Amino acid sequence: MANILYIKRADRLAPMGNQQAPVKFLIPLICNFLFKRDFFPLFLFMKTVLLIRHAKSSWGDLSLPDFDRPLNDRGKADAPKMAKRIYKKKIEIDTFISSPAKRAKKTAEIFAEQYGIRKADILFVPELYHATDDTYYDAIASAPGKSDSIAIFSHNPGITEFANRLTENRIDNMPTCSVFAVKADIEDWSQFRQATKEVYLFDFPKSADTD
């Protein structure tokens, strides 16, 4: 439906005669045809942020500091499952940004592997452990300008609270290894904070979605 809507709008904007519709409107249509990607109509500059809560962690060793808790068996199963699911939806991720806490780091590494990204290329931001809204906004603003889609791996309660700040949609809780994504019509990540965001995806291991 998005493609049909786009074509109708592009046709309506095209002048009569031999003149062509503005390049801004034609490029997404051409790319959609060539690469089978989904584009929001009428926007050329669109960036995506995926908020990903770490997979289920273990409480088996109570002597471990919270920062060092690893994934448990369920987490080790959920992380590759969700990484594969998101990848199969053809959702691109150019940059991986993560809390350095062990459970978030491991989740990020599993997603990065699915996307063919080296572990060494994951960006670790210490402040994403117990992050505030400002921490998330700062991490996004500092993302590489060449990236059009970034994934941030972090923790509750901050990640759910931040997700609820972004749009009028509300979620009670981001389950472990859930993915909440928004799109914003911006050219630079520094514009994200003030931009209008639109929910793109909310998915989690126990959702009705199938792989």
How many separate structural domains? 2
Per the CATH scheme, the topology name of the largest domain is Rossmann fold
Count all strands and give the number.
6
Separation of the first and last Cα atoms: 23 Å
What is the approximate shape?
globular
* Helicity level: 25-40%
Rg, alpha carbons: 19 Å
Write the layout of secondary structure elements.
Blueprint: H1 2-13, H2 23-35, E1 47-53, H3 73-88, E2 95-98, H4 102-114, E3 123-124, H5 133-141, E4 149-154, H6 158-166, E5 179-184, E6 197-203
Parallel strand pairs: 1-4, 2-3, 2-4
Antiparallel strand pairs: 1-5, 5-6
Describe this structure in words.
By secondary structure, the chain is α/β, with parallel strands linked by helices. It folds into two domains: 2-35; 47-203, Rossmann fold, CATH 3.40.50.1240. The protein has helices at 2-13, 23-35, 73-88, 102-114, 133-141, 158-166; strands at residues 47-53, 95-98, 123-124, 149-154, 179-184, 197-203. A six-stranded mixed β-sheet has the order 3-2-4-1-5-6. Helix 3 runs parallel beside helix 4. The longest helix is centred in the middle third of the chain and has 16 residues, at 73-88. The radius of gyration is 19 Å and the shape is globular.
Quick gist of this model?
34% of the residues lie in helices and 15% in strands. The chain is of the alpha/beta class and 211 residues long.
